[in-house]
Amino acid sequence: MLDRYWYGDASRISPEAPVPVLLFKEEEYRLGGAANVAANCAALGARTRLLSVVGRDVAGDMLVQMLRGKRVAASLQRDRSVQTTQKLRVIGRRQQLLRIDLERPPSRETLAAKLADYRRALRGCDVVVLSDYGKGGLAHIATMIREARKAGRPVLVDPKGDDYSRYRGATLITPNLAELREVVGSWTSEPDLVKRAGRLRARLGLEALLLKRGEEGMSLFRAGRPIHVPAERREVSDVTGAGDTVIATLAVMLAAGEDLEAAVRAANRAGGIKVTKFGTAEVSRAELFGRA
User: Fold this and answer.
1) Mean pLDDT throughout 223-233?
2) Lower CB density within 10 Å: C or N end of the chain?
3) Which is the catalytic residue, given 3, 163, 244, 259?
4) Superfamily of domain 2-289
5) How far apart are CA 153 and CA 286, in angstroms?
């Protein structure tokens, strides 16, 4: 996705409708969606390859150029029938006034053709990250998970929607509170949450489930007792893209040979650093570890 920001002053209400009038000042472009995940992986020093589909349009051209600047090896299918997904956020005095989404999902045929690139990429990777934004780009996710696991690669999934059966066999999924509640229902207590998370994990054959709990930190559910990692206290500027930073850090740490608990603690810290930054952004290795 291409994230676009329109900045300006919004100090009066329109006489035509009860909406603010933005006096436009400037526009900014940032990597969004899976491109933001890839940029975060690269910022931590990982060799990163991104597979996706974009349109034959200006937004697609910009994504290619921006990813090159972030040292991401991008294999982007250019499809004339697709409109590159864009999120345009209108910002007045650092407050989001409006978001406009532009998107058109790719065809299953286009995505099926991309599977050949995916199979080739598996040979040279340590970890696979599948970021699901509900935009239609992961129509063949069951096949992707199955082939990665057959190749001995751990698969991390950032889920979307209420049908988690499509993630069956993944190594780990990273829902937030609202996303997990949509699937397992509302829990009445922490023990009830543990039971529901355990049943979901067993039903899907997952090794672990990492629950992102916002200001409460994260909880890792796997065989044995859950591990809760409290959030680091920071002044929150913007949570946009924090989930991307979390799963990217988790993937890089696992690829580097860290155990799952250590990877979760690093990801929790990275997410805390990200929310101090406005908009989608990367967390560098120096920021995370205090050294270059």
Assistant:
1) 92
2) C
3) 244
4) Ribokinase (3.40.1190.20)
5) 27
